[in-house]
Amino acid sequence: MEIQASNLRFTVDARDVGEDGGVSIKVLSTVGNKEAQLLRFDVFRKRPHYHYDPEGHGAEYNLDPLLIEDGLGWMLAQLRAKLPEMVTHAGFGEVAEEMDLSVILPIIDDIEREARVIEAEGIKAAAM
Q1: pLDDT value, residue 57
Q2: How much is the pLDDT for 24?
């Protein structure tokens, strides 16, 4: 799934990396003349984590599943509450300044619906 909103593009898909995998949400934008991945949320079964500027300096943070039982819910809450701050922290302040949150925030519900379907399919497949 891919959704354009304001100056951002979101992709939601399933991603597998070795023995781990799950829902992956990417936040992209055009910076200069090229597409840049600003943020990526990998809601993996074994090691859920998120990235700031994964193709650049690539800061990565793991979620503690003991403290955060619904990693996908936590990540979506961050998109809803802190998206401009996270994009700025990733090094893309100019992109954050141009965001129209009145256009972006409503599509987070669409992202959540798609991500929950992918998450459920992954849980079902892992149980087999």
Answers
A1: 78
A2: 97
